[in-house]
Amino acid sequence: MLSKNNSIVLSKLKYKDNDLIIKCYTQQRGVVSYILRGVFKTKKGYKKIVYFQVLSQLQLEENFKPNRTLQGIKEVKFNVIYKSIHTNIYKGAIALFLSEILANVLREEEKNEALYNYLETALQYLDSEDNYSNFHLLFLLKLTRYLGIQPEHLNMDYPYFNLQSGVFQDSDNGIYSISGNNLTLLKRLLGINFDALHSIKINAKQRQEFLNMLLHYFELHLDGFKKPKSLQVLNEVFH
């Protein structure tokens, strides 16, 4: 069945000698994997590969068959042409890092339009903004809402946050309790949207420490979550 489906590229993998497997998060069907056969054989095929950079926003005309693991693509075009995500080394490092996380945590093969709209809007914000060094922190924190693991917003005046239970607490409960700079930044980020990111002023060490805390939170709440291999690249770029 031929149909059109807006899609965000999560990953790509060369398969055998000439094929390419693309994993996307789609507006109509959630996670879908596609196969492009023979794209490494011809010049026309090679031209198609440019569409499938990580986090590209595409419109796919797909040949969808429910019983298939890998779907076919008849036509592809950009929904959004990024101005900077794929040309700016810093934004590119963020995109690589986030795509690896999204490919890991997004597994549902069903429609979730609210999540798709969040990804679409957030990535367009990243592409257009000059103040983006903390973008990935807020992006991941807001993503927890759509994954069903959002930190509880009650009692935010308490001096501790428990990573394991996801709630603010009035006393230190051991290795999962955070305080200090990470707690302060968590409270600030929970209260803002992307357009207020410019108000967050932290150094590279604070950014790295908070990101490590966030990734630990994901590990505690999502089965099978693994720290992205691209984390080291991201830290080096923003050091």
Briefly say what this structure is.
The chain has helices spanning 43-49, 89-105, 113-128, 135-147, 180-190, 204-221, 231-237; strands at 2-15, 19-26, 30-36, 57-63, 72-80, 160-162, 167-169, 177-178.
Fold and architecture overview:
There is one protein chain. By secondary structure, the chain is an alpha+beta fold. It has 2 domains: 1-81, OB fold (Dihydrolipoamide Acetyltransferase, E2P); 85-239, Up-down Bundle (de novo design (two linked rop proteins)), CATH 1.20.1440.120. The chain is 37% helix and 22% strand. The chain contains 7 helices and 8 strands; from the N terminus they run βββαββαααβββααα. It has helices at 43-49, 89-105, 113-128, 135-147, 180-190, 204-221, 231-237; strands spanning 2-15, 19-26, 30-36, 57-63, 72-80, 160-162, 167-169, 177-178. The strands form 2 sheets. The chain has a 5-stranded antiparallel β-sheet with strand order 3-2-1-4-5. Strands 7-6-8 form a 3-stranded antiparallel β-sheet. Helix 2 (89-105) runs antiparallel to helix 7, helix 3 packs antiparallel against helix 4 and helix 5 packs across helix 6. The longest helix has 18 residues, at 204-221. The radius of gyration is 19 Å and the shape is elongated. The N and C termini lie far apart (49 Å). The mean pLDDT is 94.
